[in-house]
Amino acid sequence: MSGGLRERLGRLRGVSPAEGTPEADIGTANMESVADRGGADASMEGPDVSEVGAETIPEGFRQLGIDSERTEFGSFLLRKIRYPYPYRHGTYDLSELSSLTGYLSPVAHRQNKETETGQPLDVSRLLFLDTETTGLGVGAGNVPFMIGFGYCEDDAFVVEQALIRHPGEEKAMLAYLLDKMGGRSHLVTYNGRTFDWPVLVNRFILNGWRKNGAEPAHLDFLHPSRALWRNTLASCRLATVEVERLGFVREDDVPGSLAPALYFRYLSDGDPEHLRGVFLHNEKDILTLASLCVHFGVLLSERDMESHANEAGSEELYRTACWLELHGKADVAERLFARLAEREDAGDGGWGLALAARYKKAGRHGLALPLWKQAADRAEHSAAPKLEAHLELAIYYEHRDKQPGVAVRYAENALELVHRRAKLGTNAAKMREEKEAWQRRLARLREKAARLSDREKE
Fold first, then answer.
1. Where do the structural domains in the chain lie, given as residue ranges?
2. Which segments does the entry list as coiled coil (predicted)?
3. Could you tell me the pTM of the whole model?
4. Which of 90, 143, 253, 319 has a CA 20 to 30 Å removed from the CA of 381?
C-alpha cells in the first residue's frame, strides 16, 4: 500500500502513519477453505471501531440502508438490498435466472477449460461479483474498498455491498466475502478474471491467508460480449453494453473511474455523501451482470431466435452464429448462417467473406460463390476496394469450374482496382508487389484461356 493512501486511511481511523498496520506473513490466497480456518493472524485488524455500536453510523449511510456487520476479525459497513421477483432490470426479468442459467454451462466449461461433461451450472451456486478499488492496476497496492456481490434466493435477487472505513476493517470484509463464497461454484464478473479476482487474491495474501484447495471457477461476461459485439458497439464497456443490448439506461450515474477519488474524499472528511453514487453505481453493475446472465442464457436456449435473427444486424448475427457454434449449437448456427447468406448486404464488411470462407472450407462452394460475387461487385464500386473476393473467384473459375475466361475477367478487374488503390497513396512497395502478382496471374490465365479456346476450335 502506498504511503499516501496509508496516511489518509490512518487519519480517518485516528492513528498516525507511524502506527500503521503491520503486514501479515504472506502466504498463498485460498478462496474456499480460509473461512473455515479462522484466519492466519489478526495483524490487519487495526483499532476496533465497531465497539461503539450502530448509533455511530452517519445518517447518510443509514439512508442507504447501511449498517455495521461483524465477523471474528472486526466490523465493516454492509448494505443489503433484496429485489423480490418478478424484478426487471432493463429488458430482462431476473426471475428467469433460475431457468436459464443451466444453458450457460458450455460457456463456463470453456472458460475454465473443463470437459463438457462437467457439472451443469446451478444458479444457487453463482456469486455475482464487482469491486470498487483505489486504483486501476492489479498490484498489491490496489485496495478494494468496496466489494459488491449478488446471489439468487428462491423469491428474490439479493445484492450486498461491503465497505471498509479504514485498513483495520479489510480483513473482516474479506472474511465475510469468503463466508458468502462457501458452497459457490463460480464467480460471475465482467473482466473479473483478469482484474477483480487478482486484486482480491493479493489482498487475501497480504492478510495472511494461505492456499488450500482450488480457486473458484469463473463466468466472465466480458469475453462473450467481445465475441458478439466488438465490431458493432462503440466499445464493450459494461455501461455501453447495458444501454445498447440490455435496454437499461442509468440516470445520474457516477462513473466507476471516479470511485477512487470519491473514496479518498470520504477518507478526508468522513462525509458519507461522497460514496452515495459509488454504492448506487456498484449496485447497478451487479444487477447488469445478472441481466447479462439472462441474455446469454436466452441465446443458448434458442428462445426468441427467430425474432433475434430478424432484428440483429448482419455483423452481430454472424458473430452470434459463430459463438453459438463454438458452444455446441451447430444446428441453430447453421440456420443463422443460411439466413445471412440470403441478405442483400452479404458483401458488406468482413463477415460476408468470413462466411464464404467457412463454406469453402466445408466444400460447399455453391454457397460461397454468391457471397464472393456480391463482395466483388461492392469492391468495384468502392473508393477503397478490397481484392479478397476477386482472388477467390479467380481461383474458383480457374481450378474448380474450369472456366479460365471468367477467371481472366476477375483478374483484369482486380488489376484495375490495384491501380485505383495505388492512387490513394497506399504503401508503394506493397502495391508494386500486389500489382506484379496479379499481372503474373493474369498472364497465366490468359494463356490457359487461349489454349482452351484453341482446343474447342479443333
1. 3-301, 361-457
2. 421-455
3. 0.82
4. 319
